[in-house]
């Protein structure tokens, strides 16, 4: 990496034993300092209203965000599939899911990891079909909690977190 500043560190010309030191070469040691990150914050103010007849609450959409999500998803699709394939061949995987709300609807974020990869899948389901779609033929070791959906994997390949703790 090109240096912004170069500092020469010079050795003594005489060794501690009293002999002259013969210069051979230089080694380079770089210290990299990252600048402070200044976030760019965009605030969206969404109008909200309520229907006069049915009393249904209506909130404005964020079309720019949705369009950006679609574009990014499309560009990442092939890499996402490659990661799924690589995880399928892993010796072991850590898997967990957690609930969240998205525009008032219940959703689930699934995380599948090994030493090198972390795959996130956001779905409307916490069911076995999610695991089947992500890891259709996985036969390695699964580290997870005791949620019943993990019974999808062979019993001898499942390691629940409580058993590992003991």
UniProtKB/TrEMBL annotation:
It holds the Pfam family DDE_Tnp_IS66. InterPro entries: Transposase-related, Transposase_IS66_central. It comes from the Eukaryota. Residues 64-155 form the Transposase IS66 central domain. This is Transposase IS66 family protein. It comes from Trichonephila clavata (Joro spider).
